[in-house]
Structures are given as structure tokens and as C-alpha cells.
Amino acid sequence: MSVTVLKPGLLSSLQDAGRPGHAAIGVGRAGVMDNPAWRLANALVGNRGDEAAIECTLLGPTLRFEQAAWIALTGAPMTARVGTRNLPAWTACHLPAGSVLQLGSMRIGCRGYLAVRGGFDVPPVLGSRSSDLHARLGHAQGRALRSGDALPIGASAAWPGSSPTAHAGLLPWGLDPQPWFDFGQQPLALLHGSHTTQLDEASQQRLCGSRFVISKDSNRTASRLDGQTLQLHAPLELVSEAALPGTVQLPPSGQPIVLMAEAPVTGGYPRVGQVAAVDLPRLAQRRPGDTVCFRPCTLEQALTRLAEREQRLTRLLHRIALRMLQPH
Amino acid sequence: MPTPPVQLETIAEDALLLRFGEHIDIAVNARVQAACARLQHELPQLECVPAYASLLLRFDPLAWGDGLATDPQKSLRETVLAALAGSAEALAPTREHVIPVCYGGAHGPDLSEVASHCGLSVDETIARHVRAGYQVAMIGFAPGFPYLLGLDPTLAMPRRRDPRQRVPAGSVAIGGNQTGIYPEQLPGGWQLIGRTPLCLFDVTAISPSLLVAGDRVRFRVIGEDEFARLDADRVQ
User: Fold this and answer.
1) Is residue B14 part of a domain?
2) pTM of the full predicted structure?
């Protein structure tokens, strides 16, 4: 029993927390671009939390559910229809066997998540069911979903208090997306990079004082920034060292690149900043044409905000799990 | 002789970079590998990513020590320096691999170009590539791709001006003063001098990468027949 991909959408792939711990053999962590949105989607269908979900990009896929399933949508707001019925996001929806779920475009943001109760149960590769599109590793040799793909759904206990119906059903409650989706596109916190001080003065001011635009060449490996160029005092010849998501690299073109989830494990460009980890999911939700502003932040501030978010998220996940146990 | 100090730099909330030098150098890289082995042994909760002259440590700052009561990066630095200051005994013998390579022909389409660039005969080029002993400086670019230090300097040759869209898996190549092996079919700009039938990266294996940073590598010349035989064995 499974889900069949009828139309793949623009770029849909299975994603989970990725493959931490393998960078030394050239395998990056990769995985979901918007981690809180993915965790909340899993929680809303009563999953353990680490199950693979479908990450959709700008335009979602059309899927046929060969079996009845509970699903949840989070991340960027995306139209979702079964037949003539619109489905809400940030809650759990029950789909009867044979339902065709049409996910449409996102009016804002870039990445939406579709979780299913039981998770998409493809064989894990190096401990993860995600597709690393850059390294071509993982589910389906690391490629995006294609029409005709069949995605098995993992086993799960019966939904507490539910009786399968012939119609799409909803939970009577949902989450407020506001804290978990950046509707206002606020400035992103930027930590000092190894080579920030090697930028000429005008460039240092531009980095945190002006607007960049997400380039259409952006993908899961990197968000490329247009609109401003940055220059170093003098060219730097650097020896390749480990690279990380969030690093703002400056190639010789002067067009900054922010490494994202599928960052290569090594790189040799100057690092002129590091996007605070807490703001990386927000950058992941900026689509080509969206603007990005940075504001400087200290390591302490970045850690405090990260800890606060994790605390809020953990509490919410716990509340959702408790609510799941109540009959509705 | 006193060892030069290591420089520590916080590069992200969850990442500390240890720098042992600024250049590509076998002795500097050996210090990276020794520190990596030591830290993996003493602090297994860290993810260690060795490169030419640096070692990246990734950790969970929210789970380190007593949460955020004390600065997790400061506490990590102290722990790391203490671990590195401890015993210097070698933790494990260095692994040595002998990699069979079929040089030239269809397997090494750039071999004659490399030979003429270096002013050597094809045979002498092969002999110098085989004579040297190599050290895996780091794995990068793609899963299982080893950057090998130790290339005979007379064999150095810049990358190709037009990178290939598809370099076959197992291709042994020269890029600048380094040599490497493409673990799978990939785009690439290095000069292809030969090919090994060995599988360098297998996600289903317990140790997916045949080579890891710090390993020693030698090459052994094989002919077309042995290549075909080993290649068939591998596929089975």
C-alpha cells in the first residue's frame, strides 16, 4: 500500500533529518530545509518525529493515496485539494483510499511539507530516507520524485478515537502557523565570518545594510544572492576546509552564496558571514526574487534565540502528542 | 621540536574549526589526522571533519555541558584543548591500501597529454605515479573522493580548461599537484591517467568509503585483462 505520484510538481523529494556524522567521508548532512516545519508536520499526524515527509518546492505534486491515510501540511502556504474540497494546512486531514490530493502553488514562501501518518517508508541509506539531490544519494539515488513513483507508507497504530470515513475528514483543531512561518520576511541574523574583516569597508556596510535578492539559480545546495556585490581588500588564496550550511561564501564574482542543507562538505571560498542557525529555515523559505537583509548578531544572541525556539518547539510537540491521545 | 599551536575559531553555533596551518603540507595534514583520531577517541559525541590543514568539529550546543548556563563554545574549546594535550600515543596503525590501476588507453585518456606536459615518456609518467606513496588528506567533492598528497612534483599539471561532463567511476586523475580517484561517475576537470576497478564508495557497506583521511595509498599497475577480471568480480 502506498502513495502514487501522478504529477511531481516543481521539485518534490523525500526528506528527513538527513545524514549527520558522515561528512568525513564526503557525505553531507542535507535533509529538510525547514526543520521546524517538518517536525510539526510529523507531530500533527502523530508520528514519532523523524519520519520522512515530502518536501515540495513552489508547486506541489499531485498524489493518489492507494490506502486511507492521515496527512498534514506545513511550511509555505500551498493550495491543497481533494476533488472539489480545499484542505487546510497545519492540521491533520484524513484521506479515504483512492483520494487524489492536488497540491498547488505557494502564494508566499518556497517549501511546503507533506507528512503522512506512518511516514514514507522507503529503505534508509546511511540512516536516512532523504534524497540528497546534490550528492545523488539516498532515496531513488538522490533524485526528485517523478510521475509513477510509488512511496510506501509505514505501519502505524490506529488513530485514537477515529473511524475511517468515506470522506476527507479533519481534526477539529490546528496550529497557528504564525510563529513557524516568516510571513513578514524579517532580516536574518548574521554571525561574523572568518573573512568578514577582509571585505573592503563599503562591502562590509553593504553586507548588513542593504538588500539582496534571491537568485533564480538557488537550490537546496545554496541560496545565491543578487543585487549587491561584495569585494575583498585583496584576493585570498585559501586551502579548502570543511563547509557548513549557513556559511556566506564569497566567490571571485563578488556575488555572495549562502550554503544551504545540501552544502558540499568542503569549500575554499572566503567566508564573510554565517547565517544564524535559528534563521536558516527562514532563508530556506525565500524564493527567487524575494529580498534578504542581514543584521549583525553575536554568537550569544544566536544561541539564545536557538535555545528559545527549541524550547517553544519541544513544548508544542509535547502538547500536540498529548492532544493526540484524547478522543475527538 | 615544539609543535606549533593550533588556532581555534568558532565558525557557527555548532561548529569549531581547528587550524593547524595555512598551506597544503603533508606534515600539517598528519597533525590534522592525529588530532582527529585523538578527538574521535576521547569525545565521540563530536563530529570530526578533517581537511588539508584544519579540522572541523560539530557538536550540539544545546545539549553540551549544562545547557546554556555556561558558554558551550568556551566549554568545548577547553575540553578539546585538554584532550589534545593528553597522551600522544598513536591510537591505531595507519591503514595502507594498494590500489590497482590500469593506466592509459581508454581508461586514462589524458595520460599522453600529461606525459608530454611534464616532458616525460608515458612509461616514466606511470613509473613516477606508482613509485610515490600517498596520504589521504581529506575526503570531499563527492562521497568517497580522496584528495591524495604525495604526488611527484614533476607530474603536476593544471586541470583541464574544459571539464568533462562525465568522468567514469574509478578514474585516477591529476589536478594541480594532487592526485585523486573519482568514486562514481561525476563531472570533473582533473586529468585522467588511469582507472581502478575497485569500488571506492558503497552506501550498503559498514564502512561506505574505502579510503578515509589519514590512510596511506600506493598504486599498482594492472593490464586491461586484470582490470576486466577485477571489474567483473566487483560487479558480482
Assistant:
1) yes
2) 0.94
Contact criterion met (CB < 8 Å) for B141 and A277: no
**Which residues of chain A approach chain B closer than 8 Å at the C-beta?**
20-27, 125-126, 135-137, 191, 193-194, 239-242, 244, 246-247, 264-266, 271, 274, 276-277, 299-300, 302-304, 306-307, 310
ipTM, 2 dp: 0.93
User: In B, which residues are within 8 Å of A266 by CB distance?
Assistant: 51, 138, 140-141
Cβ contact (<8 Å) for A265 and B49?
A: yes
Tally of domains in chain B? 2
| Cβ A231 vs Cβ A201: under 8 Å | no
For the cut 70, the answer to whether the pLDDT of residue A136 exceeds it is yes
User: Which element (helix H / strand E) includes A132?
Assistant: strand A131-132
Q: What confidence tens digit (pLDDT) does each residue in B118-136 have? A: 999 999 999 999 999 999 9
Does B113 lie in the same domain as B80? no
CATH code of the domain containing B50: 3.30.1360.40
Q: Please state the length of chain A.
A: 328
Give the pLDDT confidence of A47-92 residue by residue, as tens digits. 999 999 999 999 999 999 999 999 999 999 999 999 999 999 999 9
Reading phi first (left if > 0) and then psi (alpha if -120 to 50, else beta), residue A227 is in left
Give domain limits for chain A: 2-181, 188-297
The partner residue sitting opposite B13, judged by closest CB among A21, A22, A277, is A277
Q: Top-level CATH class of A188-297?
A: mainly beta
Strands of A69-75's sheet, edge to edge?
A13-15, A53-57, A111-116, A69-75, A92-95, A169-170
Closest approach of B166 to chain A, Cα-based (Å): 14
In a domain, B1, yes or no: no
C-alpha closest to that of B173 among B120, B165, B183: B183
Reading the block at residue A168, the C-alpha cell is 476527507
Specify the range with the lowest mean pLDDT, choosing from A103-107, A169-173, A200-204, A273-277.
Answer: A169-173
Same domain, B75 and B119: no
pLDDT (tens digit per residue) in A215-265? 999 999 999 999 999 999 998 888 888 889 999 999 999 999 999 999 999
Size of interface A-B (CB pairs under 8 A): 114
Show the domain range for B125. 96-235
Higher pLDDT, A325 or A102: A102
Q: Give yes or no for a contact between A299 and B13, defined as CB atoms under 8 angstroms apart.
A: yes
| Average pLDDT along chain A | 94
- Distance of residue B206 Cα from the nearest chain A Cα, in angstroms: 9
Domain check: are B14 and B46 in the same one? yes
Residues 6+ apart with CB under 8 A from A168: A82, A85, A87, A93, A94, A95, A96, A99
B91 domain residue, yes or no: no
